[in-house]
Amino acid sequence: MLSDFTPMPTLAVKDLAAARAFYEGVLGFAPTGDAPDMALYTSGAGQFLVYPSSFAGTNKATYMAFQVPAAEFDSHVEALRSQGIEFQTFDYPGITWTDGIADLGSQRAVWFADPDGNILNLETPA
User: Fold this and answer.
1) CATH domain 61-126 topology
2) Predicted model pTM
């Protein structure tokens, strides 16, 4: 029924101006459409929506993930670090951490948060 439609992640934020500064200024997204109370961004073949909500940052799971080719992973990690992004680590069976980068065997990944605590992930394909 819904498998024919492309999902659109939606991220709740407390302060839309701060979120726009992060997603546009730090991560480099350009808004593709917005209204005074939300911002829409395109990423690859998909889109995501950022909107204000009093529930912002209450989910402690990954909100959105970006897959990058393995050969480009390190350069993207360094670009994020150069923007002041700090990577999160956590205990999970089978993950080995080196300098904030998770080694999952056939995959590498980092997790980081936006200003409201929404958790984002950058990873290589499995």
Assistant:
1) 2,3-Dihydroxybiphenyl 1,2-Dioxygenase; domain 1 (3.10.180)
2) 0.88
